[in-house]
Design a protein that fits this description.
Blueprint: H1 9-15, H2 25-35, H3 48-54, H4 59-73, H5 77-100, H6 104-110, E1 115-120, E2 123-128, E3 137-141, E4 149-161, H7 163-166, E5 172-173, E6 192-193, E7 198-210, H8 216-226, H9 233-262, H10 267-281, H11 286-302, E8 306-308, H12 312-316, E9 322-326, E10 337-343, E11 346-349, H13 358-369, E12 374-376, E13 379-381, H14 384-395, H15 400-406, E14 409-416, E15 421-428, E16 431-438, H16 440-445, E17 447-452, E18 455-458, H17 461-476, E19 480-489, E20 503-512, H18 519-528, E21 532-536, H19 541-551, E22 559-562, H20 563-568, H21 571-577, E23 581-585, H22 589-601, E24 606-610, H23 616-621, E25 624-628, H24 634-639, E26 642-644, H25 649-689, H26 698-708, H27 710-716, H28 740-765, H29 769-790, H30 804-822, H31 827-830, H32 838-861
């Protein structure tokens, strides 16, 4: 049933066939059968074995499996064991990663209240929350977590924290009065409560209107099930690369096998050539190098307050072209602060020098007395608005604890959401003063006089208009305004509602959650980096727009819209207009997903920040979901791929720079691995075409690919950023790794390494086949170690900062190669000729250094 907020108490009870005495047990059982238990449903999940098996459903993996089988059948058992070990390790890592990503809904279920107090058959009873049904009469009081969605029937100053659903930290004052509105954002449905919301004050009697998957939390759970996690641009590039490489390898292996058979080779020899080619072509270390490169980026970002849950998100950050950011706590300080004061016909603001003016001190002291908040050191306890008043009093030199001891509260009328006022009585200035605070329009209507220059005068229409104009001016700047008044009583007696009339107007205090100091600079950096910042908030349009203008998000030519306007837009219309909108206010979870999808459908890579349960589906839908570490719920953290430990927008921009650097390093390391592999492919094809002996064994190629190649590739991932990354535009996510320039460089560098390897092969062939194989293996290995310096950057090694990791990788790789060449016990495993001498090593080093010398020489000539 929709629009319960419009119905009166009698209408809603009738619609759900219930009464204030609640349902009988028979009716509860009947409704349990109809509506089901008050639980969130869960889709069936894949088992561990199925997930493990799916890790092998990749064409490159299948090719390696076939190569392992052929190697075993032709006597190469060592190569088979190494290949299988590598494949199993990769499958285990993939399985672990899969199950780590399935925690979001578990956290969502944990938020449910275990028990609930209801009226059934006229009796108050406590029942398991899972057994609540629509039509139940639910009793709520301070400290309870709402166990279902419901319409408030009786309200006793109920205040509810809906931050998990709306993203706004302030408590909501509830009402039991019907609201005559056709469309109403969730945050404005003051006569409704929602499952998982925390009751912070007061109590209420509520009719349950929705349970299980039919609650707002249930809708979010359903959206999280349907929201698809987006593959990052690097994932898509690598997937595309893997498919193309697989097809190329299959075709080339088939051609080489066919050529071998045509030239009269035995079936075993022809198959061994094909296996060698497959092992040479497949970069077995690529997946591990990319993962480790991302992990290195993760460690660096963790030191800068960004924890990465999904490694792929590190690189994805470099492609981000839109950041949809929450306002409260991310762009703002998440701390209400007094900005302006209107008293004695004048106003003070934070930009002016704070003075201990008597009128301001007096108003601030009164605001601290008519106040239920408290400050314990840096800890604020109570409503954010009230603690902001206390902080303000301290800022201008006051001390609320001393004032409260000096002028203790004698009587009070607590705040009520219907009358929107709070009153307290104190003995002050030798008389009994009733201090009142509340909404400006309500309180001003009850004032008959005003205090100006210490004298009480009647409020004229002109004075009243001036006050209302000042209030409007504050409100239009997105400020929350409270009015203050007082009344002189003749004795200490219980206060009545009638006392809240004929008041003396004292002044206005305006406050807001101000922007973080670094937000404006971070937004400017964001734009410089070619990224569009967008604000999405549950707050009001005026407040959101004021903040957005202040920090540079809302500029001329762009606009702000509310959820109600968004509701009327079709998906196609939103897709067309999304580029014109910089601020979204009073939005629902569904709106957030639509906004993210609209940007994605326009070809953008979208990052989304959030901290509430309501943000979780959009965090999952976004290319990069960013949760808040301080204020964020566990559900939002689990759904996100990145968590900010300082809840700071500026940290996102630092992470984008890191992400771009990570991608650059990963691309360079991929270039290093593939150019080396291409050299191996070209050498195997050359010897096969000419009917020469096999230049490498599968074990030799695996040694190069997994050990001596991995070290320089890892060192390349340790390269520092050049410092101009934020001046570049976001990378086109559709641009794959194998661009024309990339392929040109790959072929040129791989071709150079192949030429010197063939030259070394012929040199060894003059001795015997075994020496030819040894020389080719050692030269290819050494040439690839030297090549690691070329792939650090597109510039000459003389023009980039030193990287000790590259030097270390070269030294260790060289030592490993020398161990294989000079320890006789390893010769049989690696097919090393026992006749190898020191002179042969000198030749190997000479051949291997030629490609690096030529590449660096050309770069120096071009002044790169």
């Amino acid at each position: 049933m929709e629009k319960q907020w419009k119905m009166s108490k009698d209408e809603i009870l009738s619609a759900y066939e219930s009464t204030m005495k609640g349902l009988c047990e028979a009716e509860v059982k009947k409704r349990l059968e109809t509506y089901g238990y008050n639980k969130l449903q869960e889709q069936k999940r894949k088992g561990v074995l199925r997930v493990f098996a799916e890790q092998f459903a990749d064409l490159l993996v299948v090719i390696l499996v076939i190569a392992a089988v052929i190697s075993a059948l032709t006597g190469g058992l060592e190569g088979t064991m190494v290949i299988i070990a590598v494949l199993i390790l990769n499958a285990i890592l993939g399985t672990v990663q899969h199950f780590k990503a399935q925690k979001s809904l578990d956290s969502l279920r944990a938020m449910a209240a275990p028990n609930a107090r209801v009226i059934r058959g006229g009796e108050k009873v406590e029942v398991p929350a899972a057994e609540l049904v629509p039509g139940d009469i639910l009793l709520l009081e301070a400290g309870d977590v709402a166990a279902a969605d419901g319409r408030i029937l009786e309200n006793f100053s109920l205040q509810v924290s809906e931050s998990a659903l709306t993203g706004e930290s302030e408590n909501v004052n509830k009402s039991d009065v019907a609201i005559d509105e056709e469309e109403l954002p969730l945050g404005d449905r003051l006569n409704m409560v929602y499952s998982s919301s925390l009751v912070s004050y007061g109590r209420a009697t509520v009719l349950v209107t929705g349970t299980g998957m039919h609650t707002e939390i249930g809708k979010i759970a359903d959206m999280m099930e349907s929201a698809q996690e987006k593959a990052t641009p690097l994932q898509r590039s690598l997937d595309d690369f893997s498919k193309k490489l697989s097809i190329i390898i299959i075709v080339i292996c088939a051609v080489v096998f066919g050529l071998g058979m045509w030239r009269g080779m035995s079936l075993g020899d022809a198959l061994m050539f094909a296996v060698a080619l497959a092992v040479a072509a497949i970069p077995e270390a690529l997946s591990s190098i990319v993962t480790i490169g991302l992990a290195i980026g993760t460690q660096k970002m963790a030191k800068e307050n960004a924890i990465i849950k999904n490694l792929r998100a590190v690189e994805g950050l470099g492609c981000v072209s839109v950041i949809c950011s929450d306002k409260t706590g991310t762009l703002t300080q998440n701390r209400m602060t007094v900005q302006k004061v209107y008293v004695n016909g004048k106003y003070w603001d934070e930009e002016r020098t704070i003075q201990k003016e008597e009128n301001i001190m007096n108003l601030a002291e009164e605001s601290s007395l008519c106040n239920d908040g408290s400050l314990n050191g840096e800890t604020a306890v109570g409503d954010p608005t009230e603690t902001a008043l206390l902080s303000f009093f301290r800022t201008i030199g006051g001390n609320e604890k001393e004032s409260r001891e000096k002028f203790p509260r004698l009587q009070e009328i607590p705040f009520d959401s219907d009358r929107k006022l709070m009153s307290t009585l104190h003995e002050r200035n030798g008389r009994f003063e009733m201090l009142v605070k509340g909404a400006p329009d309500v309180l001003l209507a009850r004032c008959s006089s005003i205090l100006l220059d210490g004298a009480e005068i009647s409020i004229t229409e002109e004075v009243r208009k001036n006050i209302l104009d000042q209030n409007y001016g504050f409100s239009s700047q997105g400020l929350r305004v409270l009015a203050f008044a007082k009344k002189i009583l003749h004795e200490n007696r219980p206060l009545t509602l009638e006392d809240e009339n004929d008041l003396i107007f004292m002044g206005l205090i305006a406050m807001m959650d101000p922007p973080r100091e670094e937000s404006a600079a971070a937004v400017a950096d964001c734009k410089k980096a070619g990224i569009r910042p967008v604000m999405i908030t549950g707050d009001h349009k005026i407040t959101a727009s004021a903040i957005a203008k202040k920090i540079g998000i809302l500029e001329d030519g762009y606009r702000a819209v509310e959820g109600a306007e968004l509701e009327k837009m079709s998906d196609e219309q939103l897709k067309k207009e999304v580029g014109e909108i910089s601020v979204y206010a009073r939005v629902s979870p569904e709106h957030k997903i639509r906004i993210v999808r609209a940007w994605q459908e326009n070809g953008h890579v979208a990052a989304m920040t959030g901290d509430g349960v309501n943000d979780a589906p959009a965090l999952k839908q976004a290319d990069i979901g960013i949760a808040m570490g301080i204020t964020g719920t566990e559900v939002s953290k689990d759904a996100a791929s990145m968590i900010l430990t300082d809840d700071n927008f500026a940290t996102i921009i630092k992470s984008v720079a890191n992400g771009r650097n990570v991608y650059t390093n990963i691309k360079n390391s991929i270039q290093f691995l593939l150019s080396g592999n291409l050299a191996g492919i070209l050498v195997v094809m050359f010897t096969s075409l000419l009917g020469l002996p096999l230049p490498f064994t599968a074990v030799q190629l695996l040694f190069i690919n997994l050990l001596t190649d991995s070290l320089p590739a890892l060192a390349i991932n340790m390269e520092k950023s050049t410092g101009d990354l934020l001046k570049q535009k976001p990378r086109d996510p559709k641009e794959g790794i194998l661009t024309a320039d990339f392929m040109k460089t790959l072929v040129l560098q791989g071709g150079l390494i192949a030429v010197v390897t063939v030259a070394a092969f012929y040199t060894g062939l003059q001795v015997n086949d075994g020496m030819a194989c040894t020389m080719a293996f050692a030269t290819l290995c050494m040439a690839r170690l030297f090549h690691g310096f070329n792939c650090r950057s597109s510039r000459s090694v003389f023009r980039i900062p030193s990287n000790p990791f590259s030097v270390g990788a070269f030294v260790i790789g060289t030592i490993l190669l020398l161990v294989v060449l000079f320890i006789p016990a390893l010769h049989s495993l690696f097919n090393i000729d026992d006749a190898i001498l020191g002179m042969d090593i000198a030749k190997i080093i000479g051949f291997a250094f030629i490609p690096t010398f030529l590449i660096q020489f050309v770069r120096v000539l071009r002044k790169r």
